Amino acid sequence: MKLSKKNIALQAEKLLEKLYPDAECSLTYETPLQLLIATRLSAQCTDKRVNIVTKDLFSKYKSVYDFKEAKEEDIADCIKSCGLYKTKARDIKLMAEKIISDYEGQVPDTLEKLLTLPGVGRKTANLIMGDVYGKPAVVTDTHCIRISGRLGLTENTDPKKVEFDLLKLLTPETSSDFCHRIVLFGREYCRARNPLCFNCPLKEICKENKNGKKTVR
Ligand code: SF4
What we know:
The chain is an all-alpha fold. Helices cover 58% and strands 0% of the residues.
């Protein structure tokens, strides 16, 4: 029997929750600002590296006012090993200035306002919405886009379109958790190359597996 997209999504949510009940963001942070900065640093860098760098960065600069007052070169110096450090340092400083000038020093809690911050795209904004403010959010990273397509939840590959497709299918209260879980699932089973379809807990609901496009070993 052909499952509807909604049905596949519901079953995938249940199965992934069972597999990864405690899935959460792998970036280390204590405040909304810290998650915002850590996420900006994570572009083209591993979360592990970001966590090493932010340990020192956040002990040196504790508040949004500290980042505003900091010299761009000093921030750049602290984050050098994350790559693209000059652009990232500039964004962090501009971000702090905007949060103070437009949002009374608080990281905003709507997608629209978050997207006005320098260096913040939909992926970062959704991460803040889901993880910090507990609101419905879909973070479409490379794992989410690949696996959503394979499962048959979307025909799109553009991150924004995938986000909108998933928003219609996922349970709003847990959509953010689903995105953390799908990253772990992508690393363990549904890898970009050689996915482990033969042993996959989602193979019964996976469109690509049923179509025989993937090798079931
Ligand atoms: Fe991915 Fe294969 Fe599992 Fe489908 S069956 S979700 S393609 S690992």
